[in-house]
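Shall we go through a protein fold together, starting from nothing but its sequence? Please make up or recall a protein chain and show it to me in full. Go ahead whenever you are ready, and we will take it from there.
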Amino acid sequence: VFSIGVGSGIGQSELTSIAGSSSNVYSVTSYTQLSTIVVSISTTLCNVIVTPAPTSLAPTIQLTAAPTVPQCVQTQPVELVFLVDGSGSVGTAGFTSSRNFVNAMVARFSVGASATRVSVVQFSSSTRTTLTLPQGVSASTVVSAVNSMAYMGGGTNTAGAITFVRTSIFNSARPGARKILVVLTDGQSSTSPGSAANAARTSGITIFSIGVGSGIGQAELTTIAGSPSNVFAVSSYTQLSTVVYTISTTVCSVVVTTAPTVPPPTTLAPVTFAPVSNPCTQTAPLELVFLVDGSGSVGTAGFAASKTFVNAVVARFNVGATSTRVAVVQYAGFGQQRVALTLGQGTSRT
């Protein structure tokens, strides 16, 4: 079972109870953001089919979520800064996962003095600069610096850390370069990050926030990012591997457009998020069932996004009587289930 939570109406604990493992849990802040996780979810589903151990998804942070990930094609120089939580709640294992996540993200960009420059700052009660923008001009330099980053421990002063990167890291940004900040954290800030984040955005910095676990709420993540479209959430540090492609693709979309405040596409175009040219290579037949919430809280627009999401995921699979059969069931209140398609019927993509 894989569970996908939309919005703040369902908590991580219930999603985990449904899925049975935090590795099988996904969360987005709105139905329009479903488009950003099509590739991650469909690839993770595919991993279950082609591996003999479906309960051990992504035990380490590797680029397994997108094995043939292309680099971001940039149309302008980028100053890419990672603000990594090193507080006591992260733990050494979580911090290792965070470091690997940063390296996996950086691998999607062309790092160089005239392309993407990378800075990495760790924060807890204070900040520690691992790499400045002028230093982060080669992928090997970034990887070496990140791998040697020592875990700090301590509190969580996200507000102070955001102010620090605005005044002491981005102050060396190149004229005309797109400024992007990725904040990775698992806890609430000791002081409200709202003013610091607003000041950063006012100075031209686009912020993406990534929350890990239940220690930080969607409200604070949105306050940091400024838009729910720039917010991502995973239930554990080990699950960061499953969103590398999704987050880096969303960041890339900011780099190749001229309007950094425009959120990712609100429709789930399979050709963009789940290209049929790269389907799941199955080694066993699959019975794939979607249980879709059709309750009143979803709304017509949300339900339309849900339908398109199902189609986008299905597009990644070889649908047929001897390969993947698909069933779709909508549900609402007690006793309100509606079968849209049975397994016996779902034997072709059309």
About this structure: The first strand starts at residue 3 and ends at 6. The longest helix spans residues 91-106. Confidence is low (pLDDT under 50) at residues 51-69, 257-277. DSSP finds ten helices and eleven strands in the chain.
